[in-house]
UniProtKB/TrEMBL annotation:
Pfam families named among the record's database cross-references: Beta-prop_DCAF4
Xref: SMART domains: WD40
Family matches, as InterPro entries: CUL4-DDB1_E3_ligase_receptor, WD40/YVTN_repeat-like_dom_sf, WD40_repeat_dom_sf, WD40_rpt
GO cellular component: Cul4-RING E3 ubiquitin ligase complex; Ddb1-Wdr21 complex
Protein name: WDR21 family WD repeat protein
Species of provenance: Schizosaccharomyces cryophilus (strain OY26 / ATCC MYA-4695 / CBS 11777 / NBRC 106824 / NRRL Y48691)
Keywords: Repeat, WD repeat
Domain of life according to the entry: Eukaryota
Lineage of the organism: Eukaryota, Fungi, Dikarya, Ascomycota, Taphrinomycotina
Amino acid sequence: MNGTPLEIPGFYYDSTRNRYFRIASQGISTPSANAYTRERLNQNYSLKRNSSEDDEKQSISKKHHRKLLPGINKYLFNRQLSGTHGNFMSAGLLGQRGRKIKFSPSLQGISLQKIHWVPGLDKYLFSSNRGDLFISSLYSANDSNLYDSSVSSNNQMMAQEVNVARLGLSPSPITSISSNFDTSLFWTTLGSQSTESKAHMCNFNVSQNSPENYTQVSLRSMKTPHCSEFIKGTGFAIGGSNRIAVLNEEGVFRRNFHSKGDVFTLKAIDQNTLAAGCRNKSVLMYDLRGPSKTICQFSHDTSVCSTSLVDSAEPKLLVSGLVSSIALYDLRFVRHDSKVNHLMSYKGHSNLVERNLALMCNEKGTIFGAAGDDSHIRFWRIDSSEVIADFKPDVGGNHVLYRDGTWLKSNDTEGWLLPIDDCVHFYES
């Protein structure tokens, strides 16, 4: 540059390098400002000269390892999990083996099947093999019902007794339970030679502690309803033999979605997207606003038995299948008819023949539990596929199964609730 350089406010001219640099503001020190001071320039020059030999060595090493990527967990899970394992242990899950909840009046001789937590009521619904529908809470009004007579040196479960109320009795087995997470309750029943499969709805009156406005809808087009799911702003979806039926919250039929196989599990990804897990190993994705066909799909290793949503903001889906197969899929990368690889697989699960077994993820999307056909309930860390707990319930040596389960959060207490025989087991997180 010939002559006197121009004066630009906030910049100075370096004649040796023939360019302008930003002047650091007085009294304010920022990384961007420091980078342009004369002192910083001289310091950087010295550092570059001293580290030139190290850079050459590192460049040789990078050529051999450029294909190696950083840990995938760093990119998949944008959350802090430090301390989760320790909190998990100190909360009693690993130390006390959970809590056995018995009911008053006694349900002896009844086998419990399905269970669903209703946050708006701070209660849970559960069904029996006889068609009963019960409702109860996590704690009884009388704390003296919590007793430790069954706690012994062999680390058995602490026992608790709570009151239970029966909402009704169905002549047919109850196949699924759901709710709008408030006071609207929903369940489906299996048809027989003389009756059709049906969907049932009612509102729960909190002040009177009883159901009201009962409605039932015939599912003529669906021989066997396997599952149900609430979709905010839409209503209830029912999955069954070769189709999905959608009802609004008043029980009025809205539409059908066809599938190529029996639908064993449904999961609402958001208000407009529904995921369906099928017998034919497929996970089908439906847009509830569009035509009655899939917008995309992907295949699991085996028949899909259960699903659980891990993160609704960046949706990831846990999929449990037969032959001990549990995997995590990122739904953001699912395209129509494209091959999708799972992000994680989880070892240690056992399920060779059973279809209805519990799969539950906690609210934070950090830990999930799955029941096996070997009578065990296991818990994994989602981000590392690490098994952090493995329990077998003490039921007198009998072979029992957790056929369903639910995650709950009641006041300051949260954990997993699973029906077994005539009681419920609670594992606190």
